Every structure is written in C-alpha cells, then in structure tokens.
C-alpha cells in the first residue's frame, strides 16, 4: 500500500504538453522538475491510496475549475523557471 498524489501525474503531463510549444526556454529534466515542484507547492494535493502501484480507488473525474487552476499554476511556474533556470 502506498500514497500517490494524483496531481503529480497531471502536472507532469501538463508541463510536457505546454513545453512542446515553447522552443525558446530550457526544457531539460532539471527545469521540468523545478517547474513541477513550484506548481505542486501552489496546488492542493490529491492523494489516493495505491496497492502495488495500482490505484486503489476510482479516480474522481477532474473538474473544469481544477484543470484551469492547474494549468494556470503550471504556466506561472514555467515563466518563473524560464526567467531563472537553476543551472548554467
Ligand atoms: Zn534546464
């Protein structure tokens, strides 16, 4: 049994989708993770119980407002990291 924050998957997916269209900024793994950390810290976690890596409960469908907030926070985080990448 374990805990998994559903937002991690959502945020990573959203970052990957948004960065596809951003060719003027660094999209290395370090920057992706920095973006994910910033966005996740600004969003409420959605923990679910997993068993052997399998989701235990049925996911509730992600509602529109939740999605809009998530995308907003990811875009903010992308802009923060694009301004100041944490590496040379
Ligand atoms: Zn980078």
What does this structure look like?
By secondary structure, the protein is an alpha+beta fold. 53% of the residues lie in helices and 12% in strands. It has a 3-stranded antiparallel β-sheet with strand order 1-2-3. Helix 1 packs across helix 3. The protein is globular and about 40 Å long. The model has no long low-confidence stretch (mean pLDDT 86). The structure holds zinc ion (ZN). Zinc ion binds next to helix 2. The site of zinc ion has 6 residues, from helix 2.
Draw up the topology in text.
Blueprint: E1 2-5, H1 6-19, H2 29-41, E2 47-51, E3 54-55, H3 64-83
Antiparallel strand pairs: 1-2, 2-3
Helix pairs in contact: 1-2, 1-3, 2-3
The structure holds zinc ion (ZN).
Main beta-sheet annotation = 3 strands, antiparallel
Give Rg in angstroms. 14 Å
CA-to-CA gap between the ends? 40 Å
Q: Are any ligands bound, and if so which?
A: zinc ion
Strand order of the largest sheet: 1-2-3
Q: What percent of residues adopt helix (DSSP H or I)?
A: 40-55%
Number of helices: 3
Low-pLDDT residue intervals, each spanning 5 or more residues: none
- Average pLDDT figure: 86
Amount of beta strand:
5-15%
Number of strands: 3
Q: Which structural category fits the helices and strands? A: alpha+beta
